[in-house]
Amino acid sequence: MDQMKLIITVLGKPEEADIDSIQRPTCRKFIKSLPYIREIPLSSLFPFADPLALNLLEKLLVFNLDKRIIIFYALQHPYLADLYSLKAILQLNVSR
């Protein structure tokens, strides 16, 4: 649970609906028991990071799986533009 506290210290306490989306009852109960914690902007933690990298991180570091970016779109993110080929992504045949 220490790891979860560290994560919440940065991301902030999730909204109630996002907490309810967590599958493990013990995790849900633990997070609900925490006081309100405000999110720390990633740009203040990593002031020299590429803004596109921070944008991608924000889309990846989401509690609710239904709101988190999926790999198909993550690979198309502008930050990764030099690392992927659209043809290779389309061959993944990912569906949601």
TrEMBL record:
Keywords: ATP-binding, Nucleotide-binding. SUPFAM superfamilies: Protein kinase-like (PK-like) (SSF56112). GO terms for molecular function: ATP binding. Gene3D superfamilies: Transferase(Phosphotransferase) domain 1 (1.10.510.10). This is Uncharacterized protein. InterPro entries: Kinase-like_dom_sf, MAPK. It comes from the Eukaryota.
